[in-house]
Amino acid sequence: MLNSAFGGPGPLLLLLLALAIDAAVGDRLDRILPDPAALARRFCLWADARLNRAERGPTTVLIRGALVVLALLAGVAVLGLIVEWIGGQGRGWILELAVVLCGVRGRAAWTRVRAVRRALESGGLAPGQQAVQPLTRRHAYSLDEHGIARAAIEAAARAFDRKLVAPIFGYLLLGVPGLLVWTAMDGADAALGSPGIRHERFGLTAARMDDALNALPARFAALLLAAAAPFIGTASAGGAVRTLGRDARKHPSLNMGWPIAAMAGALGLSLAGPHRDGGVVITEPWIGDGRARATAADIGRALALYAVAALILVGLVALLVWGVAGL
């Protein structure tokens, strides 16, 4: 696990190296390396435009959506096996390292949330709305400054799970195929898993597969965020645990309520809640019992919590490497 048969680093060392590189320059690599989740999202949107026809019956639409997702996952699994085979050949480990860096994008996600904080602090409402728009499914231009801050904090909680914990979980379980299957599923859910009539049947398989694959990572991400709270002066681990027990299942998503609840409880905030989508008010329960009037400073606290939780995660991977080396 620590060294391959051909003398290169094994999977655990590759993962640790990738996490160190991502922490240092991941936001810069984000501009260079392709994003598997974004590519999967484009593929699913292309398939959606061509196969999801209103005149088709609900069963046909469901089957078509399932075939799209299964074809995508089969394709990336085969690609992952090829990358692993190349990775075992001499210097082929460099390719595997690059693929891991494509899938683990913790620093890039953190930087995008930081951009929302900077936009709010320097420009106020309009720049904040523009910065948060790619990070939320809510109608960004209907949000006030507190709504923008809440959306950014929720995005940080989701990204910690989906861009860091879940891909690492997939790689530890199934290697490169596991990593690529998760990132592809992340993109498929972003394209097809949103609520609404259009994707109610066509996107059902994507939504259910995403729920299944992210069930354990989302809950582990929540525990990591709670564990990070004592290292942030104004955060509370007890608040995170209490909110997890009370509110995690209130979120419309089967899994996203866990990291969002941990973030809300740790920071003493109320997240999620009712919001406007155009002229319609979408009624969702609040998660957390703290302040709903989040600010740019609260985004900074969320980013600090994210960073410390990520360090704990890296430490756990390092302990795993050390433990395997000692066997």
Automatic annotation (TrEMBL):
<feature type="transmembrane region" description="Helical">
    <location>
        <begin position="164"/>
        <end position="185"/>
    </location>
</feature>
<dbReference type="Pfam" id="PF03186">
    <property type="entry name" value="CobD_Cbib"/>
</dbReference>
<protein>
    <recommendedName>
        <fullName>Cobalamin biosynthesis protein CobD</fullName>
    </recommendedName>
</protein>
<keyword id="KW-0169">Cobalamin biosynthesis</keyword>
<dbReference type="GO" id="GO:0015420">
    <property type="term" value="F:ABC-type vitamin B12 transporter activity"/>
</dbReference>
<keyword id="KW-0812">Transmembrane</keyword>
<comment type="similarity">
    <text>Belongs to the CobD/CbiB family.</text>
</comment>
<dbReference type="InterPro" id="IPR004485">
    <property type="entry name" value="Cobalamin_biosynth_CobD/CbiB"/>
</dbReference>
<comment type="function">
    <text>Converts cobyric acid to cobinamide by the addition of aminopropanol on the F carboxylic group.</text>
</comment>
<feature type="transmembrane region" description="Helical">
    <location>
        <begin position="61"/>
        <end position="83"/>
    </location>
</feature>
<dbReference type="GO" id="GO:0005886">
    <property type="term" value="C:plasma membrane"/>
</dbReference>
<feature type="transmembrane region" description="Helical">
    <location>
        <begin position="303"/>
        <end position="325"/>
    </location>
</feature>
<dbReference type="GO" id="GO:0048472">
    <property type="term" value="F:threonine-phosphate decarboxylase activity"/>
</dbReference>
<comment type="pathway">
    <text>Cofactor biosynthesis; adenosylcobalamin biosynthesis.</text>
</comment>
<feature type="transmembrane region" description="Helical">
    <location>
        <begin position="220"/>
        <end position="241"/>
    </location>
</feature>
<keyword id="KW-1133">Transmembrane helix</keyword>
<keyword id="KW-0472">Membrane</keyword>
<dbReference type="GO" id="GO:0009236">
    <property type="term" value="P:cobalamin biosynthetic process"/>
</dbReference>
<keyword id="KW-1003">Cell membrane</keyword>
